C-alpha cells in the first residue's frame, strides 16, 4: 500500500516505553535462569494494550517502534559533554534492551534504530516524510523534545494519560508555538541532557524573549537593546554557547533510513511467533491474555518471581503468581455516587465481568453483617474496573420482617447468592485478572468460606503501609482524603450508632449502592496512584516479598484457628478469683482497713493520704494517679516499706485480674460454635516496625514472666492424635543488634553458642561465667533487652526494683563495655533527623516525623528511631519465614496456627513432629538469606507438647 493521503502513521517512542515500564513496575526475574525481565514484561503489556486499543476510524495504517541505538550520537561530536550527566542504565536493565526489540518484532511491529542518531531524530525524519507524502502522524510519547515536530498533520499522544498534544498544548507548556520550541530550549538549556543554554534564563524568560524578538537569531543580533543589564550581558557573552545548544536540541529530520514508509504498513501479529516469544520469556499472565485474544491454547509456564525474592506463599498448592500490571492513567473525574449501578441479574453482572477480563483487573469489596470474618454473613459485593464506573451486587439484604417460615424476610431486587458467586468465582480465581482490594485479608476469608480462593491480588492498604509506615494510618477513608482529596460516605450514616445501630443487611439497597460501590471506586483509584509509586518509594521489595504474600498465609492461619479447652479456662478463672481474694485480704491488712482494691481513687487515698507516700499527683477528677508506673516507683522506695509492699501486692492483683477478665473469662466467649476453636485476627499494617498485631482476641500479649500468665497457655491444646509444636527465635533482636552495631564480643558469643546474658554480665562486672550469681545474670539480661528499647536508668530501676542511681550505673557501665551500641544509637538518630526515616536491614522504611520535635515527645521519638531498625528487622525475618513456610511444610500433616512475635505455633500429627520441626527450623533459621548475610547465626528453639504451655 503506497503511503499518501488518508494514511495514518503511528510512531512509538520505544525507549520511553522501556524506562516507563522499568520504573513503574517491580523487578522480576525469569524463573528458569534468573534473567531480569521486569521491564520486558511491562513493555510487552504496553505494546499489547496499544495494539488492542489502536482500532476504529482513527486507527493507524502504518506504525513503527523507534529505539535509541546507543548513548553516543553525532551530538557528542558537537558538544562532548552532551548527556554526560546521565547515569548509566541500571545493571538489571541492560540485558533487557535487546529483549524489548525482540518483543516488538514478536508483535509484528517494525523495530527501528539507527547508529549515530537518537530515536527522536528517526521520529522527526519519518514524521517529515509522512507529512510531505500527505499523511497524518501521531507520535506516541510524552517527550518534550518531540514537541517541536507538532503541526501540519503531526500530533503527539501521551498514552499513559490518554492526552493528545497539539499546538495549543505545546504553547501552554513552552509559551511559544511548536516552530519556536527549539529557540526556547536553546536559551533555557536542559540540565538532564547537559545542554548548557544561557545561564540564568529559564523557560518563561526564554519564551518572553522569543515572543518579543521573533526568533533566536534576531534576539542574539539585537541583544544590545535588552534593558536588563544581567540578561543583556548573558546573551552577549554566551551567544556561541546558545547557538551550540540550538544545534543540540534541533532534531535531525534527514536521518538516513534503509526502509520506506510503505514497509511500515500495519500487520496483525503472528500468534505462533508471538506465543513462542512469550513462552520463552515465561510471561504467564500475558501469555494467557494473548492466547485468549487470538483463540489459541496457552502453554503451561512456571510462575515469575520477584527479583531477588523468595517464592510467594500461595493460597493453595499451585496457586497463581501475582501479575505485574501497569495501571492505566485514572481520569481526574469527580466522584459521582449517583452514577453507580446496582446489579440485580446475571446478564448485567456478566457484562461487567467481561470488562474486567478485557482490562486484566477488578477492584472488589464485600459488605457483611460483622467484622468477624468467621461468623459474618455476606450481604453484597462491589466491583470496579474503570474509575468512576462502579457497581454493587446486593445478595443478602433483608426487610426487617419475617418470612413465611419464621426467618428474616429477604428484600426484593437481589441476585441469588449462589448464582452470583458462580459468576464471580471464575473471575476471582482467574490467574490473568488482578483483584484489587483494601485490606484484602478480610475479603479473602469471606470468599474462602464460600469456596472461592481469590488470587492473584493487590492490596492498597499494604501498598500504603510499605511506603508510608510511620506517617499516617492506612485505612481507606484516610487514604482517600489524603491521596484522592475525597471524603468517603461515613458508614455511620447507614448503620447509625449506639443501641440503634443496625447491621448492613438491614440497610436499604438503594442507600447501600452508593456507599459500597464508592469503596470499590476509591480502591481502584488508590491502586492506580500507589502502584507506580512503590518503585519510586523503594518499597517494592518489602511489598512483594513480605506484605502481599503474607496475606494468604495469615488468612489460612486465622481460618484454621487454635483449639482451646473451655473447661481448663473455667478452672483457671475460679483459681484466679481465689488468688485475687487472698491478695485483697493481704492488701487490706497492709492498709490497716478494708477498701476496694480495684478503685484507683481509694488506693490513692490509702497510699498518699494515710500512709504518707510523698509526691502524689492528682488528675482532673481530683483523684491521685495510681497507674502501674506510679506503683512500680513506690516499690523501689526503701524508706517506705509498707507502701512498697502494698504497691507490689496491688500490681500482682491487677495482673491476675487482667488475666481473668481478658483471657480466662473472655476467651470462652471467643470460641467459635461451628469450629470449637478461637480465631484471632492479625493486623499486618498495625505497627510501624512491621510487627504483627493480634486482635479479637489478642493472643500476643499473654504475660509469660509470671506463673499465672504462663498457665493461660495450658488452655491452648492440640486435637486428638495431634501435638502442639512451638518454634521460637532465640534472642533474635540481640543478634540483630550485634550485627548492625558490630559488637565483636557479642557476635563471638553468639557464634560460640554461649549464654549471652552471662557473657554480658562477665564483661560488665568482671566476674567469671562459671558459678555466676543468678541475680547478676538477671541484671545483665534486663540491660541487654532494655537497651534495645532505649531504656533509661529510671525504667531499669522499675524493672529490677532497685535504686535509680544503681540502675543508671549499670547502663553507664554497659555503654563503656560496648561502645558500638552508643555509636549505633547516635548514628541512627542522626540519620533519622537528616532523612526523616530509618530502614531495616531488609529495606523496610519506617518514617520518623517527630524526630526533630522538641519537648517531652523528643525522647520517645529518638528511642523509637533507635529501636525501629532492630525490631523491624526481626519482624522482617519472621515474616519472610512465614511466607516460605507453606511450601516448606507442604505434604506434612501440620498446620501453622499462631505467630506470637518471635514464635510460630503449629499443630501436627504425633508421628510427624520431628519432620515438622526440622523443616520449620531450617526455614526460620535461613529466613534472612539471601537478602541479608547476618554475621551472627539465627537459632530457633523448638518444643512439643499436648498444649502450648508444654511446647513453649
TrEMBL record:
Is Flavoprotein given among the entry's keywords?
no
Instruction: Tell me the GO molecular function terms.
Output: DNA-directed DNA polymerase activity
Q: Could you tell me which InterPro entries the record lists for this protein?
A: 3'-5'_exonuclease_dom, 5-3_exonucl_a-hlix_arch_N, 5-3_exonuclease, 5-3_exonuclease_C_sf, DNA-dir_DNA_pol_A_CS, DNA-dir_DNA_pol_A_palm_dom, DNA/RNA_pol_sf, DNA_polI_H3TH
| Alphabetized SUPFAM superfamilies for the sequence | 5' to 3' exonuclease, C-terminal subdomain, DNA/RNA polymerases, PIN domain-like, Ribonuclease H-like
Q: Where is the 3'-5' exonuclease domain?
A: 340-535
Q: Which residues form a coiled coil?
A: none
Q: Which PROSITE patterns match?
A: DNA_POLYMERASE_A (PS00447)
Q: Which reactions is this enzyme annotated as catalysing?
A: DNA(n) + a 2'-deoxyribonucleoside 5'-triphosphate = DNA(n+1) + diphosphate
**Keywords of the record:** DNA damage, DNA repair, DNA replication, DNA-binding, DNA-directed DNA polymerase, Exonuclease, Hydrolase, Nuclease, Nucleotidyltransferase, Transferase
The 5'-3' exonuclease domain covers which part of the protein?
Answer: 4-267
Q: Which domain of life is it from?
A: Bacteria
Q: Could you say which EC number(s) this protein's record lists?
A: 2.7.7.7
Q: Which Pfam families match?
A: 5_3_exonuc, 5_3_exonuc_N, DNA_pol_A, DNA_pol_A_exo1
DNA-directed DNA polymerase family A palm domain residues are 709-912
**Main EC class of this protein?**
transferase
Q: How does it assemble?
A: Single-chain monomer with multiple functions.
* NCBIfam families membership: pola, PRK05755.1
> What family name appears in the similarity comment?
Belongs to the DNA polymerase type-A family.
What is the recorded name of this protein? DNA polymerase I
Record lineage? Bacteria, Pseudomonadati, Pseudomonadota, Alphaproteobacteria, Rhodobacterales
User: Gene that codes for this?
Assistant: polA
Amino acid at each position: 500500500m503506497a503511503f499518501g493521503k488518508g494514511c495514518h502513521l503511528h510512531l512509538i517512542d520505544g525507549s520511553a516505553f522501556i524506562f516507563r515500564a522499568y520504573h513503574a513496575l517491580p523487578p522480576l526475574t525469569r524463573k528458569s535462569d534468573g534473567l531480569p525481565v521486569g521491564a520486558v514484561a511491562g513493555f510487552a503489556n504496553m505494546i499489547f494494550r496499544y495494539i488492542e486499543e489502536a482500532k476504529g476510524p482513527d486507527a493507524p495504517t502504518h506504525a513503527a517502534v523507534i529505539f535509541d541505538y546507543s548513548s553516543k550520537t553525532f551530538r557528542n561530536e558537537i558538544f562532548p559533554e552532551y548527556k554526560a550527566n546521565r547515569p548509566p542504565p541500571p545493571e538489571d536493565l541492560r540485558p533487557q534492551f535487546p529483549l524489548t526489540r525482540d518483543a516488538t518484532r514478536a508483535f509484528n511491529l517494525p523495530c527501528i534504530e539507527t547508529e549515530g542518531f537518537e530515536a527522536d531524530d528517526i521520529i522527526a525524519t519519518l514524521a517529515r516524510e509522512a507529512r510531505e507524502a500527505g499523511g497524518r502522524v501521531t507520535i506516541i510519547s510524552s517527550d518534550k523534545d518531540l514537541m517541536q515536530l507538532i503541526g501540519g498533520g503531526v500530533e503527539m499522544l501521551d498514552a499513559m494519560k490518554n492526552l493528545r498534544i497539539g499546538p495549543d498544548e505545546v504553547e501552554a507548556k513552552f509559551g511559544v508555538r511548536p516552530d519556536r520550541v527549539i529557540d526556547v530550549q536553546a536559551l533555557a538549556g536542559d540540565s538532564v541532557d547537559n545542554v548548557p543554554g544561557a545561564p540564568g534564563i529559564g523557560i518563561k524568560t526564554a519564551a518572553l524573549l522569543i515572543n518579543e524578538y521573533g526568533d533566536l537569531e534576531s534576539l542574539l543580533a539585537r541583544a544590545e537593546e535588552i534593558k536588563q543589564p544581567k540578561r543583556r550581558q548573558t546573551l552577549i557573552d554566551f551567544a556561541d554557547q546558545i547557538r551550540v545548544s540550538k544545534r543540540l536540541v534541533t532534531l535531525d529530520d534527514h536521518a538516513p533510513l534503509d526502509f520506506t514508509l510503505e514497509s511500515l504498513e500495519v500487520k496483525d501479529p503472528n500468534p505462533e511467533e508471538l506465543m513462542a516469544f512469550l513462552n520463552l520469556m515465561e510471561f504467564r499472565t500475558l501469555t494467557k491474555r494473548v492466547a485468549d485474544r487470538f483463540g489459541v491454547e496457552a502453554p503451561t509456564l512456571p510462575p515469575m518471581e520477584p527479583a531477588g525474592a523468595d517464592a510467594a506463599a500461595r493460597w493453595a498448592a499451585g496457586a497463581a503468581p501475582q501479575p505485574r500490571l501497569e495501571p492505566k492513567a485514572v481520569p481526574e473525574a469527580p466522584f459521582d455516587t449517583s452514577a453507580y449501578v446496582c446489579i440485580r441479574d446475571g446478564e448485567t453482572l456478566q457484562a461487567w465481568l467481561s470488562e474486567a477480563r478485557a482490562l486484566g483487573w477488578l477492584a472488589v469489596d464485600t459488605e457483611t453483617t460483622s467484622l468477624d470474618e468467621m461468623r459474618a454473613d455476606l450481604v453484597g459485593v462491589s466491583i470496579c474496573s474503570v474509575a468512576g464506573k462502579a457497581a454493587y451486587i446486593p445478595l443478602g439484604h433483608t426487610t426487617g420482617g419475617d418470612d413465611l417460615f419464621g426467618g428474616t424476610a429477604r428484600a426484593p431486587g437481589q441476585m441469588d447468592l449462589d448464582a452470583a458467586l458462580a459468576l464471580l468465582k471464575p473471575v476471582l480465581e482467574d490467574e490473568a485478572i488482578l483483584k484489587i482490594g483494601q485490606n484484602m485479608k478480610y475479603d479473602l476469608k469471606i470468599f474462602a468460606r464460600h469456596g472461592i480462593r481469590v488470587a492473584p491480588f493487590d492490596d492498597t492498604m499494604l501498598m500504603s503501609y510499605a511506603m508510608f509506615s510511620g506517617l499516617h494510618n492506612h485505612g481507606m477513608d484516610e487514604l482517600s482524603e489524603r491521596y484522592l482529596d475525597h471524603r468517603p460516605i461515613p458508614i455511620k450514616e447507614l448503620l447509625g450508632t449506639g443501641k440503634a445501630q443496625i447491621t448492613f443487611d438491614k440497610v436499604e439497597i438503594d442507600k447501600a449502592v452508593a456507599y459500597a460501590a464508592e469503596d470499590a471506586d476509591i480502591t481502584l483509584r488508590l491502586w492506580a496512584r500507589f502502584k507506580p509509586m512503590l518503585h519510586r518509594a523503594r518499597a517494592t521489595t518489602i511489598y512483594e516479598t513480605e506484605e502481599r504474600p503474607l496475606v494468604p498465609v495469615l488468612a489460612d492461619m486465622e481460618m484454621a484457628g487454635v483449639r482451646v479447652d473451655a473447661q481448663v479456662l473455667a478452672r483457671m478463672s475460679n483459681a484466679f478469683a481465689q488468688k485475687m481474694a487472698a491478695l485483697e485480704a493481704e492488701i487490706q491488712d497492709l492498709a490497716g482497713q478494708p477498701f476496694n482494691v480495684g478503685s484507683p481513687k481509694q488506693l490513692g487515698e490509702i497510699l498518699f493520704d494515710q500512709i504518707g507516700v510523698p509526691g502524689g499527683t492528682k488528675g482532673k477528677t481530683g483523684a491521685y494517679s495510681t497507674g502501674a508506673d506510679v506503683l512500680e516507683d513506690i516499690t523501689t522506695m526503701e524508706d517506705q516499706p509498707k507502701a512498697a509492699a502494698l504497691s507490689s501486692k496491688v500490681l500482682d492483683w491487677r495482673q491476675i485480674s487482667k488475666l481473668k477478665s481478658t483471657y480466662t473469662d473472655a476467651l470462652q466467649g471467643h470460641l467459635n460454635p461451628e469450629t470449637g476453636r478461637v480465631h484471632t485476627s492479625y493486623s499486618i499494617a498495625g505497627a510501624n516496625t512491621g510487627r504483627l498485631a493480634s486482635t479479637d482476641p489478642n493472643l500476643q500479649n499473654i504475660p509469660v514472666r509470671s506463673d499465672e500468665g504462663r498457665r493461660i497457655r495450658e488452655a491452648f491444646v492440640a486435637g486428638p492424635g495431634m501435638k502442639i509444636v512451638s518454634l521460637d527465635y532465640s534472642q533474635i533482636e540481640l543478634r540483630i543488634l550485634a550485627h548492625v552495631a558490630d559488637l565483636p564480643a557479642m557476635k563471638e558469643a553468639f557464634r560460640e553458642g554461649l549464654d549471652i546474658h552471662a557473657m554480658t554480665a562477665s564483661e560488665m562486672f568482671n566476674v567469671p561465667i562459671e558459678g555466676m550469681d543468678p541475680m547478676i545474670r538477671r541484671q545483665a539480661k534486663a540491660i541487654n533487652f532494655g537497651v534495645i528499647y532505649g531504656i533509661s536508668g529510671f525504667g531499669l530501676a522499675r524493672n529490677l526494683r532497685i535504686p535509680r542511681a544503681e540502675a543508671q550505673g549499670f547502663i553507664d557501665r554497659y555503654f563503656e563495655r560496648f561502645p558500638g551500641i552508643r555509636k549505633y544509637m547516635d548514628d541512627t538518630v542522626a540519620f533519622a533527623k537528616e532523612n526523616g526515616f530509618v530502614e531495616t536491614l531488609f529495606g523496610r522504611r519506617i518514617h520518623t516525623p517527630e524526630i526533630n520535635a522538641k519537648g517531652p515527645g523528643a525522647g520517645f521519638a529518638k528511642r523509637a528511631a533507635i529501636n525501629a531498625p532492630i525490631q523491624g528487622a526481626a519482624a522482617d525475618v519472621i515474616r519472610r519465614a512465614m511466607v516460605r513456610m507453606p511450601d516448606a511444610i507442604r505434604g506434612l500433616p501440620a498446620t501453622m496456627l499462631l505467630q506470637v512475635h518471635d514464635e510460630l505455633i503449629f499443630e501436627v500429627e504425633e508421628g510427624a513432629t520431628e519432620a515438622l520441626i526440622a523443616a520449620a527450623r531450617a526455614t526460620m533459621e535461613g529466613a534472612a538469606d539471601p537478602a541479608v548475610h547476618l554475621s551472627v547465626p539465627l537459632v530457633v528453639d523448638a518444643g512439643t507438647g499436648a498444649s502450648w504451655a508444654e511446647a513453649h
